[in-house]
């Protein structure tokens, strides 16, 4: 036998090994799992909010209570959010009271008071 026929024979034997392979997916007994992308999906908790009171106030045209947005927060988170809103309102009123010209004057004054980055600071006597 020549080398070519030996190679064909070996190739044929290798191919015979793959003829008894079962194709398709593995079928398991029992209830199917909710598997997505390699893991079992957990159900997310849903927070129930009082939708009926919100819809009634929306129908009447009443303004929403700002605290209703924070019902799901802890007391510390609620205080933080309220304080943040107060600070934001103060900043907005401060900016709104100044005209563009006044803001530019303040900014130029701030820049004039800054030290130059290329100045050598004087440290110690001499």
Automatic annotation (TrEMBL):
Signal sequence region: none
Chain intervals for the UniProt region annotation (Disordered): 42-85
Protein name: CGI-like protein
Top-rank taxon, per record: Eukaryota
One GO cellular component term: nucleolus
Feature: compositional bias, Basic and acidic residues: 48-85
